[in-house]
Structure formats: structure tokens, C-alpha cells
Write a structure and sequence with these properties.
The chain has a 10-stranded antiparallel β-barrel with strand order 1-2-3-4-5-6-7-10-11-12. It is mainly β and 274 residues long. The chain contains 2 helices and 12 strands; from the N terminus they run αββββββββαββββ.
Amino acid sequence: MVLCVLVGTIAASAQQRMGEKQRFIKQSYQLGLGGTNVLDTYLTPEHFTGPGLTLLSTTERQLAQSCWSTMVRHQLHISSSKDQAGNKSMLEGTYNLAIGRHHAWSLLGGSLTLQAGALASVGLGFLYNTRNNANNPAQARLSLAIMPSGIATYRLPWLKERFTASYEIDLPLAGMMFSPNYGQSYYEIFARGNYDHNVVVTTFVSAPTFRQQFRVGYDVTRGTTLTVGYLGDYQQAHVNNLKQHVWNNSFTIGMVRRFCIETMKRPKNQAPRP
């Protein structure tokens, strides 16, 4: 009997160590189509509206028996919009890279998962007004922000729990961004080197940027889920006496893949395989 207990303890310990060397990976790919509202008073005081396209790629990694996960998200948005009269056009493109960590809590017997953490987000973008060829035709975007982040995922009791519903939200906290000052040209900034408060510290007051997403997924296989949902991404700021925003509301379709890999480390004195 003692031998059986000893063997069982060793087996459980080995299984636990093996579990700690496993990494669970979830990859999500989405395509979004919807409407965009653009404003940049550096170029023109007019609002522009039109269709937009969003491409999203998200990867989450989590070690077995760990409550912490690492997320990397790439988001690209492009749009073509017009003013209310339909005479002027605005081309817009924005790329955001977000990297962060979340802590997870499992509730309701594992049906509900809550995640909370923070993201560091880097944004690059441009605006081009097709009718401002003689004066300030384009505007560049560069920003860095720290954003608290939360995710709630609930496995619905439908069709053997193959449906899930999830909600994500990222809220503004603080950051930095580039912006010309009111009446300042790019020639003054880069050719003549006339700095005028062009790197601005931002807060949730001056740059109330936030992002939210709701998705419903259906498990077509054990490791693959098809999703549909809504994405609301509101990037906006009021600095240097200039207002700017890009509001994006999109319908999304996508796919989620989940798999596990081993992360066993090679001993230091062991040579790599040829």
C-alpha cells in the first residue's frame, strides 16, 4: 500500500511538472466592415464619414497552471470618407500594436472567465485630404498609451456549451502623442527645427480613447471557433488647440484557434541537436 501511494505521488508530481511546461496558445483573426467618422481641425473643421475596413490579429499565451496570460494584438484600419456635401474626400489609415498582461479568474464552475490587466499601445497613422493640396494636405499620427483592459467570457449552455459570448474593453489612462501646434506647419517642425510643444503628454481627459468589442462564438471543432461580433474603436484627442478623432464602428467575422505546445527547456550542459 505504501508503495502504491509512493508511486501515485511521484506520477502526480511528474504530471504537474509536465503541465507547467505546457503553453496554451489562442490565436484570433478577424475582418471588420463598418462606418468611420473622421475629424482633424489641423486640416479642416469639417466632419468626414464613410466606409472602413479593419483587420485584426490577436495572440494570447498562457502557461499551464498559471493565472497570467500575455496578449499581442495587431489592428489595421483604413477608410475613405467624404464631407457632408460630398465634395471633399479624406483617406485615413491607422495601425495599432497592443501588448499586455491579464490575470484570469474562473467563476460559476468554469462557465465564466474574467480577465483584468493593462496594455501598452503604440499607434501609427495618417490622414490625407484630397482637396488641401496647397495647404496642409496631410497629417501624421504617432501615439503611445497605457490602457487598463478587461475581458469577460461566458460559455452559454446551448448545444452542449458550444456557444460563447465575450466582451472586451480597453480604457484610457495616460500616454504621449505627436501633434503640430495650432497654425504650425510641418516645414517649421522638420525643416527649420522649430519645436513648439509637439510631443504632448496625454491623459484620459485630453485623449479619451477607448475600445470595446462584443463577440459570439460557435465551436465548430474542439480547437476552432467561428465568431461574429461588433467592434467599437474610438481614438480621439484634444491637444495644442486642435481636435482630432477617428471613430470606427464595425461588424466583425473571424476565427479562433486554440492549441498547446511543449516548452521543455534544454539543460545548460546539453549540446543542441545537429
